[in-house]
Amino acid sequence: MRRRPGIGGLQNAATARDQYRLLGENVAKIRTDLMKEQLATFRSQLEEFARKHKNDIRKNPAFRSQFHEMCAKVGVDPLASNKGFWAELLGIGDFYYELGVQIVDICLATRPHNGGLINLQELCNVLRQRRKSDRGAVSEDDCLRAISKLKAQGFVTVDEVERQFSWTSGRAIDALDTLLDEGLAMIDDGHRDGRRRYWFPCVSSIATSVADI
């Protein structure tokens, strides 16, 4: 018959398991710390690269696209904010903000001719015509990045417009109906609260509209 392990044997097994667990945790921590150190090194090198080539990043669309790919590999988003290190060094946050505003303007201006849908290549051509000298260097990648950073305007209700502007119900409805007539808003009914939503697809769906090619 096989003998059951005694108390001492069970304690030794438990101690061994604890030691293996601690060893595994230490190895995982070392790996994590090493990865953090490597990422910090990569980011430092990326910052140095950006300082050295900031003019190329600003003016050369192909170079700018490659720079964004480098940033993505180390978890850096230079477009995350218009403030901070990247914005002060490169100014590309402002560049994409300006580009986004121009894209919205072009989509609204061409809506009577194309129904709000514009080919991405055509959009880039119009943008280049509007921008002068070095500022005219815009790629399709730039357009898509600018579109991705646009914030959706969403929807409003009559009650919200009344409170926001201290308007009467009639004035709020007239203003929203005018936007409907101009094709700048859409009606969304059928909610449990019975309140009509006025959506603004000219802004909230612009990324889909422009990129729908």
TrEMBL record:
Could you give one GO CC term from the UniProt record? ESCRT II complex
Can you tell which superkingdom this protein's organism belongs to? Eukaryota
Q: Which InterPro entries match?
A: ESCRT-2_cplx_Snf8, Snf8/Vps36
- Pfam families, from UniProt? EAP30
Gene Ontology BP terms: protein transport to vacuole involved in ubiquitin-dependent protein catabolic process via the multivesicular body sorting pathway
What PANTHER family does the database record attribute to this sequence? EAP30 SUBUNIT OF ELL COMPLEX, VACUOLAR-SORTING PROTEIN SNF8
Q: What is this protein called?
A: Vacuolar protein sorting-associated protein
Q: Which organism is it from?
A: Carya illinoinensis
Kindly list the organism's lineage. Answer: Eukaryota, Viridiplantae, Streptophyta, Embryophyta, Tracheophyta
